[in-house]
Specification:
With 267 residues, this protein is of the alpha/beta class. Helices cover 45% and strands 18% of the residues. The radius of gyration is 20 Å and the shape is globular. Bound molecules: coenzyme A.
Length: 267
């Protein structure tokens, strides 16, 4: 679609492929495109699920480190000033926020390395399907900085504070087996099968009751940030709301007429 990413839709599944430079470094320009595309997909009724993928060797190597410096000349090296850092951080916040806010299921399909902001982009998705030889990490500490795209927040919510602190304090890289053990990776497949498996998974989800799935996603995500009582109240509202959808009419009528699991929702 552009020089920085490609967007295709097939079978109700939109696939965003990062294709920027040697390592898919997440510069502010690429982040702005991700934000724009996610905003468009959120309003596209033909899309029932989204896959985000990168290169065959590198999903994404993180923030574009060149944008962390105001002067890269070794003799006169200067870090970016606070205003620029806020601009870079803001681009991450908005882009990954737009991905996390997508109402339909999202799957990161990961080959190779997902480091720093690349790992944070994967964390903004609902699921991560990864190659058996993929590697993950939040190596910012090795640059004397900290994650700025959700690595201290979404990672801790997904894998718990102790595992998040281990990864963030050490900057160490973990393999697919360890990522699965700690809950960072959901499915592991052979490297050649990652994208096709992600798209097949996404197509299954896209054939489901889309309004019901969107309401369930909203209740789970919003509930995690609230007290249990507020979360349960939110769930009750969504539970009432879902009964006003065609999904509920189709599903309940089908159950009563034909038995469980026979409903065809048609996206
Ligand atoms: N931002 C900007 N440029 C980056 C980059 C990043 N995050 N990561 C790599 N690059 C550049 C390298 O400087 C190199 O540039 P050059 O070809 O002009 O010299 C090029 O991409 C290829 O990187 P290289 O390290 O030679 O490739 P590799 O295949 O051996 O390793 C990685 C790839 C991704 C494993 C490795 O580059 C890496 O660890 N990158 C840094 C990851 C990181 O710390 N991210 C967190 C950022 S906060």
């Amino acid at each position: 679609m552009t020089e920085l990413l490609d967007l295709r839709t097939d079978d109700g599944v939109a696939t965003i492929t990062l294709q920027h430079g040697k390592v898919n470094a997440l510069c502010v320009e690429l982040l702005a495109e991700i934000e724009e595309v996610a905003g468009r997909l959120a309003a596209d009724a033909s899309v029932g699920a989204v896959v985000i993928t990168g290169g065959r060797r590198i999903f994404a190597a993180g923030a574009d480190i060149t944008q962390f410096a105001a002067d890269t000349n070794p003799a006169s090296f200067a870090l970016a000033d606070g205003g620029r850092v806020r601009e870079v951080g803001g681009a991450f916040l908005r882009a990954l926020g737009a991905v996390a806010a997508l109402p339909m299921p999202t799957i990161a399909a990961i080959n190779g390395v997902a480091l720093g902001g690349g790992c944070e982009l994967a964390l903004a998705c609902d699921f991560r399907i990864v190659a058996a030889d993929a590697r993950f990490g939040q190596p910012e500490i090795l640059l004397g900085i900290i994650p700025g795209g959700g690595g201290t927040q979404r990672l801790a919510r997904l894998v718990g504070p102790a595992v998040a602190k281990d990864l963030v304090f050490t900057g160490r890289t973990i393999d697919a087996a360890e990522a699965t053990r700690v809950g960072l990776a959901d499915r592991v497949v052979e490297p050649d099968d990652v994208l096709a498996a992600a798209q097949a998974w996404a197509a299954d989800l896209a054939r489901g009751p889309r309004r019901a799935i969107a309401l369930a996603k909203r209740a789970i995500d919003a509930g995690l940030d609230r007290s249990i009582d507020d979360g349960l109240a939110l769930e009750q509202d969504a539970f009432v709301e879902v009964f006003a959808t065609r999904d509920a009419t189709t599903g309940v009528q089908s159950f009563l007429e034909h038995g469980p699991g026979k409903a065809v929702f048609g996206g």
